[in-house]
Specification:
By secondary structure, this protein is α+β, with helices and mostly antiparallel strands. Among the domains are: 101 residues, Lipocalin; 61 residues, no CATH class; 107 residues, no CATH class; 88 residues; 37 residues. It contains 35 helices and 31 strands. Strands 1-26-25-24-23 form a five-stranded mixed β-sheet. A four-stranded antiparallel β-sheet has the order 2-29-28-27, with no helix packed on it. It has a four-stranded antiparallel β-sheet with strand order 3-4-5-6, with no helix packed on it. Helix 12 runs antiparallel to helix 13 and helix 22 runs parallel beside helix 24. Its EC number is 2.3.2.27.
Length: 1065
């Protein structure tokens, strides 16, 4: 029978329609031509319900079937004997069924645990089974609702009564095995004239503010919508009316967010919340049921007769396609998106609709003829393409928000929308869309579209926003600034470069980085001639190099640059002076030199007068502990490591040890020291041990003077001043006696002593080179004393406290032909042969008559520790007759010393003297006779020793032959025991070494003479060691390199070079 509803009444409003769902018939996995087997008797199916385990299907015979994704039966059981299942609800694996049984006149409530199967019956475990009864008269169940936490169950009856079971979860999981152990239901609503048509729970935390902690129950009747607070403070009262319009059975359901209840009536669809009615959607026509699927609302109409004049295009299309349209009733199914107000799917069914469920992300529609249709939603990309084709970009954005797409996908929609508006020449609107793509769309994609001069203002807007969110790179900054300069918009340029960071950290509120690339901004402003803006940025954001580059290279404002360098402090000025120091010295040599001195010596701020102030002014006054600091400084010099002189310039002393201490501490200094433990002295702040700890100088880090050496290449006079002042103020080192009073009282220890030592060596090496290479001139400021630069160089070389590289100094003196320095360095470096050869050369040149005397003097001074000098002097003295005649007595003395100290063998002396005809035999006759006599005596002694060794060896060999001859008997004449000394009697033991013992005096199994055992053991151990050494070739070779023939002779004597022989047992 068709419903008496006109075709126009069932038509949908003129909303936008999109085919977002595809209808796919579901077939049986075993018979692809038929629907699933269980739906072939569709008229016997009483209810279908989704669950977390699968689809639940109940029939009119009381059985329940659990289906999988292929709609194959996983489990089936008889839930209600002799009756039918009317309602089902499932949460968290717990199934609530309400049904009728023939033996019971009231409806039965049963609770099943789907996850546990009873092994006897094969059915899920039955937890509870009770009757739904509040009066003696039975009433059918009209609707049921179960909270997500299983804490509340609401049952609506046909007489308008609503029963609420509270704390159901506690009852189920309490451990009770009683099937009737269910909380007593509470009647929360009664209206005999208004049957209950719908129930639904609004879960906690699903309100508009997502923070409501209470659980609410919506009650829908045929005339009203009520709200009941089920939990929380204020619960248990009477339901409040939220809307005066109700609906029929099956036309009420909760929305997909479980926040509001949806009430479907003929004229419209209403959304009702806890505070009252919400939005209303005009959708005219009768509704037999409504269902939710994700964010969609599925509306099913009752059967009606189609008409070619119907307002619905779906109905008209059905009439046009069907030949039996006039005799067939149809049911219309519409999938509606209430939030975005469009129809996602609509279709007609000729056999009527049995059930509609939402499961596994799809909508399943069961018709009365047993066919199962699956509505599959199209991919998001396909849906967006459909909306793009119809120009519905705003709708696409709303859909993306509803379906919670990621930000990159939303940005792509904005891009598509922007391209659409750009194609329509709506550049302002397109730019607004492109601004929403920042961070996801390549900026070059947008920039290329707006490079035309007519759209440059839109480009400025985009670039400014790009900078404000911190996504701009240097190219974007360049483009924006060039745009400003092209437009001559100085005000906007000022506003841009003077803009503070608009982004702040959410944690501490501190400002984030600038919204533009600072380096690029400075560079572009300089290139465009906006030096004021460039210097403003550089100075404000402490880009010291850029600021100095602008002042020096662009503006040539050296005084301002010098003043700025003083304000930077040591760390910032260090790097900048390394770059711009040469240019500063060209324009302001004196001021720049003083600034560099202050930078390398001062630990405080570089004020304008700090470099020119005398060091005494920086010393603490006597009444503030100066004497105590002086005492500390002097004592640090004694506790420091030894000062490195030019002899070992590779390791330089710490700066504290290079202080040139005064001759005697002042009485004030000594008084502090002596009175530190005195009880009668007045306690002062400098005497306390706590103050001494506080006033100890801490390590400081100062820039290396080597960084600035190259800047003085054209200002060598200033270079000397710089190096001398740095050495004096930083390390207390000077060669000028008049500047001793200017040595700082306290020298701060460096942070890195190794680097500081290298700096000291580099400074004095450079100073030494300048002293030797610059023209000799009087140095000013020495109290009238004139010391040439070369005299200063000699003072440096003589000093034992000034560190310098001796090799470097030697090369300098040789290059500059500075003879005093060469001699001094040769002596310090132990190059005494060079000193002797120098005087020998002088004697050959005839420059000095005292040269040969200097040779003898140097030999007397250095010869005892350097014996190789004596052969050299012998050759020199016998080189010419004149030398030999002047130093005949010296020659005899030298020969006696050579003989006494065994420096040369006599043959070597003879070879040296006989190399030319200067020295005669008569000159050394007596010395030769003495040497020959001594040699003969040594030869005779050696012969006697050789003969004795031969006799002893012959005796030993004879004894060995006797012992090793088995045919020659051995007669023992010993009469006393070698151990106890008693008269020898039998039994006795005789050894071949002529030792005899009582048998009782020997240990058991002792086969070796006790008296000779130790000596024999030592010999065996020596032999074993020699055999082991025979394989250690590296050790033997190193011994040969060190001792020569003595090592080889010793190896032969120890049988190391002989073939190995077995060790005697």
């Amino acid at each position: 029978m068709s419903s008496p509803i006109s075709a126009n009444a069932s038509a949908a409003p003129a909303w936008r329609q999109f085919p977002f769902f595809d209808a796919v018939p579901v077939k049986d996995v075993h018979d692809l031509a038929s629907p699933p087997e269980i739906f072939k008797s569709a008229m016997e199916i009483s209810i279908m319900a989704p669950s977390t385990s699968g689809v639940l299907v109940a029939d009119i015979h009381g059985s329940i079937h659990l289906l999988d994704k292929d709609f194959e039966t996983v489990t089936s059981w008889l839930a209600h004997v002799g009756g039918r299942v009317t309602h089902m609800a499932e949460q968290r694996g717990i199934l609530i069924t309400l049904g009728e049984e023939d033996a019971v006149k009231h409806p039965l409530l049963k609770i099943w645990e789907l996850g546990r199967i009873d092994q006897k019956t094969g059915a899920p475990n039955l937890l509870r089974s009770v009757k739904v009864q509040h009066t003696q008269r039975p009433h059918p169940v009209s609707t049921v609702a179960l909270s997500a936490s299983l804490s509340h169950l609401a049952v609506g009856l046909g007489d308008g009564t609503v029963l609420l079971y509270r704390h159901l979860d506690q009852s189920l999981f309490s451990g009770s095995t009683s099937l009737t152990s269910v909380p007593k239901p509470r009647v929360i609503h009664e209206s005999p004239a208004e049957p209950t048509t719908g129930l639904g729970f609004r879960e906690p935390g699903t309100g508009k503010d997502d923070s409501s902690p209470n659980l609410y129950l919506f009650i829908v009747t045929t005339n009203r919508v009520l709200c009941y607070q089920a939990s929380g403070k204020g619960s248990g009262g009477s339901p409040s009316v939220v809307h005066e319009v109700g609906c029929g059975l099956g036309c009420a359901t909760m929305d997909w967010k479980k926040r509001d209840v949806i009430v479907a009536r003929e004229e419209a669809i209403y959304m009702c919340g806890t505070e009252g009615r919400g939005q209303c959607y005009a959708y005219e026509g009768s509704k037999s049921s409504v269902h939710t699927h994700l964010n969609y609302l599925v509306i099913v109409s009752p059967p009606f007769a189609p008409s070619a004049s119907a307002a619905s295009a779906t109905v008209r299309n059905f009439v046009a396609r069907s030949n039996t349209a006039n005799t067939t009733d149809i049911t219309k199914v519409t999938v509606f998106d209430p939030e975005n107000k469009f129809v996602a799917y609509t279709s007609t069914f000729t056999e009527g609709i049995r059930e509609v469920i939402s499961q596994w992300g799809n909508v399943y529609i069961l018709s009365n003829d047993g066919n199962l249709i699956c509505l599959q939603e199209k991919p998001t990309a396909a849906k967006l393409d459909m909306m793009y084709q119809k120009g519905q970009y705003l709708l696409a954005l709303n859909v993306a928000k509803t379906q919670r797409l990621d930000e990159s996908s939303v940005a792509d929609i904005h891009r598509q929308y922007g391209d659409h508006l750009y194609g329509k020449s709506d550049y302002d609107g397109a730019m607004q869309q492109y601004l929403q793509t920042l961070g996801y769309l390549q900026a070059s994609y947008v920039i290329r579209k707006f490079l035309d001069a007519q759209r440059i203002h839109n480009l400025v807007t985009y670039l400014q926003e790009l900078h404000s969110v911190g996504l701009a790179n240097s190219d974007h900054t360049t483009l924006l600034l060039n745009t400003y300069t092209k437009l001559k918009d100085v005000s906007r340029l000022d506003s841009f470069i003077k803009t503070e960071s608009r982004r702040t950290s959410t944690l501490d509120g501190e400002k984030d980085e600038l919204p533009f690339d600072l380096d690029t901004a400075i560079r572009v402003c300089r290139q465009a001639g906006y030096f004021e803006h460039a210097s403003y940025l550089a100075k404000k954001y402490e880009r010291h190099e850029d600021y100095l580059r602008i002042q020096i290279e662009d503006a040539a404002n050296y005084k301002d640059a010098l003043s700025y360098l003083r304000q930077l402090g040591s760390e910032a000025a260090e790097a900048n002076l390394a770059r711009y120091g040469r240019a500063m010295l060209e324009s302001l040599p004196d001021e720049t030199t003083q600034l560099l001195i202050g930078l390398c010596t001062s630990t405080g701020p570089l004020s304008a007068d700090s470099d020119e102030r005398p060091s005494s002014a920086r010393q603490p006054s006597p009444n503030t502990g100066a004497s105590y600091l002086s005492y500390l400084a002097l004592n640090r010099t004694t506790a420091a490591p030894p000062t490195v002189s030019s002899d070992n310039a590779g390791t330089v002393t710490p700066s504290a040890s290079t202080i040139k201490a005064r001759e005697q501490p002042s009485r004030r200094d000594s008084g502090v020291f002596e009175g530190s433990d005195s009880r009668t002295s007045t306690p002062g702040p400098e005497r306390g041990p706590t103050l001494s700890k506080l006033m100890l100088p801490t390590p400081v880090k100062r820039p290396s003077p080597r960084l600035y050496f190259a800047h003085f290449v054209d200002h060598l006079d200033k270079f000397v001043v710089f190096l001398e002042t740095v050495a004096l103020k930083r390390w207390g080192q000077t060669v000028d006696e008049s500047q001793i009073q200017s040595v700082p009282t306290v020298i701060e220890p460096p942070a890195d002593e190794d680097v500081d030592k290298q700096d000291q060596v580099a400074v004095w090496n450079t100073l030494l080179e300048l002293y030797l290479s610059l023209p000799s001139a009087d140095s000013p400021g020495n109290n009238g004393q004139s010391n040439s630069l070369r005299d200063k160089a000699l003072l440096v070389l003589k000093s034992s406290k000034i560190p310098y590289d001796s090799t470097h100094a030697l090369i300098l003196c040789s290059t500059q032909q500075y003879t005093p320095g060469l001699l001094l360095l040769w002596e310090k470096m132990g190059m005494y042969e060079e000193v002797l050869r120098f005087w020998m050369d002088k004697d050959k040149e005839g420059v000095s008559s005292e040269a040969s005397g200097q040779v003898i003097k140097c030999l007397d001074q250095y010869g005892p520790a350097n014996r190789h000098l004596y052969p050299l002097v012998l050759r020199f003295l016998t080189s010419t007759p004149a030398l030999l005649s002047r130093h005949a007595s010296d020659l005899g003395r030298i020969l006696d010393y050579i003989d006494n100290e065994k420096i040369m063998p006599p043959l070597g002396v003879i070879q040296v003297l006989s190399r030319n005809g200067v020295a005669s035999v008569g000159l050394v006759k007596q010395w030769l006779l003495t040497r020959i006599k001594e040699s003969r005596e040594e030869v005779q002694t050696d012969k006697q020793l050789t003969d004795s060794y031969r006799m002893e060896t012959k005796t030993k060999l004879k004894q060995v032959d006797e012992l090793s001859d088995p045919e020659r008997p051995r007669v023992f004449h010993v009469t006393r025991c070698s151990s106890c000394g008693g008269q020898l009697d039998l039994p006795s033991v005789h050894f071949m070494c002529n030792h005899s013992y009582h048998q009782r005096c020997l240990a058991d199994h002792d086969t070796e003479c006790p008296n000779c055992a130790r000596a024999n053991g030592v010999i065996r151990e020596i032999r074993r060691n020699n055999e082991r050494l025979a394989d250690q070739h590296d050790l033997f070779l190193s011994d040969v390199k060190e001792s020569g023939f003595d090592a080889i002779a010793s190896a032969y004597g120890r049988s190391v070079l002989n073939a190995s022989r077995p060790v005697d047992a």
